[in-house]
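Posted in: Structural Biology > Protein-Ligand Complexes

Title: Requesting predicted complex, manganese (II) ion in pocket

I'd be grateful if someone could produce the 3D structure tokens for the following input. Sequence and ligand are given below.
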Amino acid sequence: MSINANNPSLKSWVNVPEDSGFPIQNLPFGIFRTSYLEPGAGIAIGEYILDLTYLHENGFFSELKLPRGVFNQKYLNDFIALGREKTGKVRNRIAELLWEENAELRDNKPARELALIPMAEAEMLMPVSVPNYTDFYSSIEHATNVGTMFRDPENALLPNWRHLPVGYHGRASSIVPSGVAIHRPKGQTKPPEADQPVFGPTKRLDFELEMAFITGKESRLGNPVSTQEADEYIFGFVIFNDWSARDIQVWEYVPLGPFLAKNFASSISPWIVTLDALEPCRVEGPEQEPGVLPYLRYEGKKNFDIELEVAVRPEGSQETRVCQTNFRYMYWNVNQQLAHHTVNGCNIRVGDMYASGTISGKDPSSYGSMLEIAWKGTKPVRMSDGSERVFIEDGDEVIMRGYAGRDGVRIGFGEVRTKVLPAK
Ligand code: MN
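-- Reply #1 --
Done. Output follows.
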């Protein structure tokens, strides 16, 4: 199928501001509601949401033979389960409807006014119901930084790291969309000078800048998905903030890995940018040395050129950017992650979320967590209001943004913005 929507010369009759991440070449899917509309599916175009339920009910998708009610739902799971080919056709059809030279919707004033909803009037909700969440650890810079801080600078990477994409099973129930505030978690920690653990609010609340992919196709138990087949299974991506409580983490994680330090919340950007929209943004990944086992080998460009940034906004103040990095440097790519995840026969489900692991670059300004930016609390970061941060304080808002840029077209993810409230 040719992806007409990706044509960089296409323009829409909907006004798209120059710096918008939502031009006609993007068309990400999400779930929204307004004061007058129940939750349902929409796509982002400029500063508007196109109501897919309305378009479907009024025959604009009639040639695609979509199931009745597929958009009129709280989650996109049934829609993305139609498969990449079908969802790609829907995206192409939407691009056709929004194209400046197509009069179908453009000149149908009543339909246009009902189908286009200003983003300012809408609330974005969780785009999918997430059956399973997995978190990888695929940035070599992040793994090296953490290994250097907590173990041994000479042997920062553990012996397995270059042979397999390390991961763990996270908690799906506490994934929330941008705009949902979280409370500082409480838990057990053991301060270095104490000989007994203590209980209380975490003193080391941190973010982790990650990208996550969402699967749109099930696999059967016992059947691995190869690196080549993986593209068929991936519907799209969101920005993912894997909140972490570092003091809880260091005390609890031996020997089975993260638990309460991670499962209290993860925050995502609400628009799913499709793999189709990201096709023009593919780049080569870093060379893998030593070579990997045959089931992890892959062909083609499997990394993505996505600019990312993190800002912290103290309550009542301006935001300060604390990180600027790019998704393209990930050592393990998503095809390898999915192939490794399923090589033992583990089955995957529609709506599953797979986060990349903290995305850090080589330079300190590109580190993707406060743990690394402030180097374990030793290098405070100055905020625009003059205060300093080594971790995240109550009242702070953490904002992550991202976009891929190609041929003068900006494929944006929007943002994930989360306020931290005091412990309950
Ligand atoms: Mn993580």
